[in-house]
């Protein structure tokens, strides 16, 4: 349900009200009982929740992935070990079958 901002044009009383979109707008001020309570135009606010891209990629600014950071016994963070990549010039050696000299 959205929150609407109201302000009385008579006495200046302001209040935020949680209402359904289908509810009729309020028109009587709860402070002075005058029919001058008007809905204000405000910027829409929203909050991202759940495990979407914002929560996983940008929230907090540092990676907390177990693969990225390992903790030692003293509690200090150390880089996780990285598996050594194969060398570019190391190609598998395949021996060709030798031809029989026809004996």
- How many beta strands in the DSSP annotation? 5
Categorize the overall geometry. rod-shaped
Summed up, the domain count is 1
CATH class: Mainly Beta
Q: Short summary of the structure?
A:
With 103 residues, this protein is mostly beta strands.
What are its keywords?
5 strands, about 5% helix, Rubrerythrin, domain 2, two-stranded antiparallel sheet, mainly beta, three-stranded antiparallel β-sheet, about 100 residues, single chain
Produce the secondary structure layout.
Layout: E1 3-8, E2 14-18, E3 37-39, H1 53-58, E4 69-71, E5 77-79
Antiparallel strand pairs: 1-2, 1-3, 4-5
Explained architecture:
By secondary structure, the chain is mainly beta. The chain has one domain (1-75): Rubrerythrin, domain 2 (Single Sheet), CATH 2.20.28. The chain is 6% helix and 19% strand. It has one helix and five strands; from the N terminus they run βββαββ. The strands form two sheets. A three-stranded antiparallel β-sheet has the order 2-1-3, with no helix packed on it. A hairpin with a 5-residue loop joins strand 4 and strand 5 (77-79). The longest helix has 6 residues, at 53-58. The protein is rod-shaped, with a radius of gyration of 34 Å.
């Amino acid at each position: 349900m959205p929150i609407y901002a109201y302000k009385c044009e008579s006495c200046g009383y302001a209040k935020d009200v949680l209402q359904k979109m289908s509810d009729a707008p309020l028109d009587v001020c709860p402070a002075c009982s005058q029919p001058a309570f008007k809905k204000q135009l405000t910027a829409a606010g929203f909050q991202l929740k759940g495990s979407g891209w914002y929560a996983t990629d940008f929230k907090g600014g540092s990676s907390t992935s177990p693969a990225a950071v390992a903790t030692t016994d003293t509690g200090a963070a150390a880089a996780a070990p990285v598996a050594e990549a194969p060398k570019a010039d190391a190609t598998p050696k395949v021996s060709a079958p030798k031809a029989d000299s026809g004996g």
